Structures are given as C-alpha cells and as structure tokens.
Fold this protein.
Amino acid sequence: MSKGVLVDTTRCIGCRSCQIACKAWHDLEARYKPSNGTYTSPEKLSADCYTLIEFFDKKTGDQPSWKFVKEQCLHCQDPACASACPVGALKKTPEGPVIYDQWLCIGCRYCMLACPFQIPKYEWDTTNPWVQKCNFCASRVASDMAPACVKACPMDVMYFDDYDKIAQEAERRINNFPGKYVNHIYGFREAGGTSWMYIADRPFRKLGFNTDVSDKPYPALTWKPSLSKILWEEAGLLAVLGGILYLRNRRNHEEGKK
C-alpha cells in the first residue's frame, strides 16, 4: 500500500527535531564551525541536508508572526526525476518513496533539471559525486514504520498513513476548521500529486512554495518523449560516458568491500 505524509504547517514550532533525526538516521555530518566551536543549521537543502526547516517572519501589527515550513522531496506520484533519468537510477517504489541507486547513476544530472521543486542536489565538493535527496526513509516505510523525521516530531506536525488517508485527513481538517486553514492542499494536485501534502493558514506562495507548478505530471515534459530524435552520435557519447562511470562505480564498490 502506497504511503504518504500530511504536513500541518500550523503546528510546527521550528524546533528542528526532524532535521536532527534525518541527519542521525542517514549518518550525515552536522555542519561545524571550528572558529567558534559551534554547530550551525543549514541554510538550504544540499547533498548532506535532506530536510530543512524554513523560517518566515511576518508582522501582525506590532507583533512578529513566525511561520516554519519543513522542506524535503515531495516524492511525486509520477516523478519527473525518474522519467528524466536515462539509466533508471531513480524510481518510485510501490510504498511511495522515490529512491536513488548511486551504482546506476552516470552523473548526467537530468533529474536536477527535471524536478519542478528543485530538490535533487549534487555533491559538488567531492571527486566521486552522487546525487542526493530525501529518500522518505524507504527502508522504514517498507516495514510500515514512520520516517525518522515524523517519529521525532514532538508536535505531531506530520501525519503518516496510507496515501488515500492523508488526503482525507487534510480535507477533514480544512472542513472542520474553515477559519484556520486556507482551502488548498498543496501536493494533492501539484505535479500530478505528491506523496507529501501540506496544509497551511496562509497562501502557500507566502511560505516559499512554488505555486506555478502544473497540476499535470511532469514526465511528459522530460526527455523520453523525444528520445527517438537524439542523433546516433549523441547516443554513442552517452554510452561511452555511461561505461566510464560504470567502471568508476564498480571500482568504488570494490574498494568499499576492502
């Protein structure tokens, strides 16, 4: 059964427990400043930051009004990143996560260009780079366990359940509290639907969401519909690059076993 997560932005207090849990579960290093001996919160999603709490400050009269929004891969129902990948390094699992196989990746970065939410990130600071992003804690979800970020949240900001149930829960909250939420479920239709959905008490564009995303799935706009038009020379070059990167991946894999 496909799973999903509903994020209720009205409940988030910005504690960043989800960020810490994500780092811990995926064994990602925290950013350390040796100059003052402190750890800092990431400013944006990156190859070593899969989830991020964004801060929005808006004054209501003389009082500041803080809003916090959790950002990560939305795990599209029909992911553009997977469609754009020429070697199948990205795929949507039956349980909901869009996962990445680094041993298939040839480093073309088409996934980064295809994603309407600009989620996949590249390891620019390493000689053996991979693409990185939230994987929806796929191993946990496959075992019917909530993702690490969901489990760590002290405010029940995130509701993890079957995909159909999270959409129903979002509608229930909006209908039961019409003055609390805007009448929109972000992710219900965007990009053809995503496994992560959001509800909020103010327009989503004011919370940093891309509100220009089409309601139609994006794979129709990626390279595969035009595959037959690619010149044989370009296809040959892609094959050569793929072979080189395959050998590199194989070497790294063998070195990792030693």
